[in-house]
């Protein structure tokens, strides 16, 4: 399965995978409004391939069922919570 990948101009790290190049008809208008003007990144063959940040099977399934797949960046790490957990772990090990 080939698909076209576009990056968002409004949300850093967001990518949109669609089956046909420049055919955004399956993508809801609200989503396109939040995504901004799509910038073409590449055309990729998903058959027998792994992707860096997302499960390729999820992408294939979403494209078949919904007509698109939206990849969002992971949420930012809460550094305060990480510090608290690390501090608690150090206290327990003492």
UniProtKB/TrEMBL annotation:
InterPro entries, per the entry: YcgL-like_sf, YcgL_dom
Domain YcgL: 1-84
Superkingdom per UniProt: Bacteria
HAMAP family xrefs: UPF0745
Protein name (record): YcgL domain-containing protein BTO23_02595
Species, as recorded: Aliivibrio sifiae
């Amino acid at each position: 399965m080939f698909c076209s990948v576009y990056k968002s101009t409004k949300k850093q790290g967001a990518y949109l995978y669609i089956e046909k190049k420049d055919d955004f008809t399956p993508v809801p208008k609200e989503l396109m409004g939040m995504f901004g003007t799509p910038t073409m990144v590449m055309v990729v063959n998903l058959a027998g391939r792994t992707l860096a940040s997302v499960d390729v099977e999820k992408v294939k399934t979403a494209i078949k069922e919904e007509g698109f797949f939206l990849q969002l960046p992971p949420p930012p790490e809460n550094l305060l919570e990480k510090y608290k957990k690390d501090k608690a772990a150090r206290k327990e090990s003492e």
